[in-house]
Amino acid sequence: MQRPVLRHPRSSLAPFLSGAVYFFAASLTLLTSRFDGGLAFIWIANAFLLAELLTSRPSSWIATLAACAVASALATTLFGMGPVAAVPMAVINMVESLIVAILYRRLVPGRTVMGSMRSLAAFVFALGGVADIVTAAAAAAVAAKVAATPYTLAFVQWYSGHVLGGLTCTPILLMFLQGEVRRWMSETSPRLRLEAVGLLLLFAVLAWAVFYQSRYPLLFVPLLPIVVIAFRVGHLGAAMSVVILGIIGASATIAGVGPLSLIAGSTGERTQFFQLYLAFSFLMSMPIAAELNGRRRLFRLLQESETRYRLMAEHSGDVVFDLSVDGTIRYASAASEEQIGLAPELLVGRSAVTLVDPQDRPIVIAAHRRALERPGTVQTVEFRPALSAVGCDWCEMVIRAVLDERGLPTGVVSTIRDMTRHKARQQALQQVAAVDELTGADTRRAFLEKLETEMRRTRQGGRSCLLLLDLDHFKAINDRHGHGAGDRVLAAFVERLRCGLRGIDSIGRLGGEEFAVLLSDSDIRRASTLCERLRRAVAAEPMAIGDGEAITVTFSAGLVELEGDSASAALEAADKALYRAKHSGRNCLRLAA
């Protein structure tokens, strides 16, 4: 149901029209239900005023209340307790409606009385739980003073009459004033409109038959049809059936006929019993109708949501799966045939984990379980598929749990997209970030990561060494021959080192002309021998620097054996050994202390 728009009177005559309607309703109830010279047993005028206030802007309330107050005073003067009670009763009537309107707006702002169980409960509370208790106390005092009616009797008369009128008539009046009846007529098919009219007519005939016979107490008979109408027609039908029951039952009771005439007592006492009966009828049918209205609205929203979901799923390039708690495929989108090579109907009933490479199944199963254990969260996992129709090497799965009305997971919805290109780009970027652009050696960050890995291996019994190298007098090369020549020297230096190393060894450029070599599976003796061989190989042949020139390059080195300490400690020890090599005349190797 869409949120109602509050009305704003378009004419200055609107308050006078409201006053006229209020005067007619008040006069009618005073003439037909005032039996003992005191208060009326039935009061529907305030139901109209409540509907006016609840559907209009507060800025128009003052004019409406003033017009209805005058109408109330005039009706009381002409047909009620006379001019002495006219003004007090008018004020009390206006206060009742104002309390309900203000309190209801506070509890459920912007909603109709019939919109939900919450709004219906708020209306009943505001009317019967607050407003009519307060105003019944004041009205009973006026009746006791002016008409000598016992205070308790007057309190009960006011309270029951005003609660009955509000509960019976306000909902249907709200629907008319908000245009809900017009919307129902335009949105409902002719067949359903005919069914609704037929049900209400049959109910009117049934109510007439029950209340205009005095032989059998058949008050229970209309209750089932009211529930049926609430189910078939909704809250509009439920409100109409209560109004029909109220009109027919009240007229028969006041006329002294029907099953209530079997009750010994005055007409007023029988009318109060009918009010109690009608209140129970209202409280039985209207909550059912409100709950059904909420369920219909929820069902419509679910249908719209499913339509959007189906549209997106069927036209998306991603594969969409609806999986049960144990991972069985309950639905597969059309993209599965293109991406996986299997039609959706062939996937339904199959375990989704069979589509995952066996090596990646544990992480996918773990993500599925996390989604079920943490409803509301989104789990993302990357895996390699076991089947692919388009050469897909990597996939990304996004998983979210589906909950029932109790908030318990009934399965998950998963979307799977091809991540092959993204993975290739990611690996290419990682490769670029891991390799020094000038020399082809590992970057500082990539080399330190390899060093950390090697340190963990040595803690488990492996033997490896770290060699720090620094080109001798490299600044002089840049100053004399230019930075271009220096760059060519660095590249040639790394290439010459690589020729003397094994495939399991790693070279890293730590910065400028400083390099590091990770010698795996080598003790300090073998590493020292290798380093001396590298030093002689570098110094043996001059390196070309361009324009036919070549220069001889040497390096100083510091060597440390990795013994399970931290990487930073190993680097510091090798750096100290390198420092001693530089101060020992360069072009030499020194071992860490």
TrEMBL record:
One of its GO terms (molecular function) is diguanylate cyclase activity. Keywords: Cell membrane, Membrane, Transmembrane, Transmembrane helix. It is an enzyme of class 2 (transferase). Residues 305-375 form the PAS domain. SUPFAM superfamilies: Nucleotide cyclase (SSF55073), PYP-like sensor domain (PAS domain) (SSF55785). Its main location: membrane. Residues 462-593 form the GGDEF domain. It is found in: Cell membrane. This is diguanylate cyclase. GO terms for biological process: cell adhesion involved in single-species biofilm formation; negative regulation of bacterial-type flagellum-dependent cell motility. It is a multi-pass membrane protein. NCBIfam families: GGDEF (TIGR00254), sensory_box (TIGR00229). It comes from Sphingobium ummariense RL-3. The chain crosses the membrane at residues 12-31, 37-54, 61-81, 87-108, 120-144, 156-176, 196-212, 218-235, 242-262, 274-292. Residues 379-431 form the PAC domain. InterPro entries: Diguanylate_Cyclase (IPR050469), GGDEF_dom (IPR000160), MASE1 (IPR007895), Nucleotide_cyclase (IPR029787), PAS (IPR000014), PAS-assoc_C (IPR000700), PAS-like_dom_sf (IPR035965), PAS_4 (IPR013656). Its EC number is 2.7.7.65. It holds the Pfam family MASE1. GO terms for cellular component: plasma membrane.
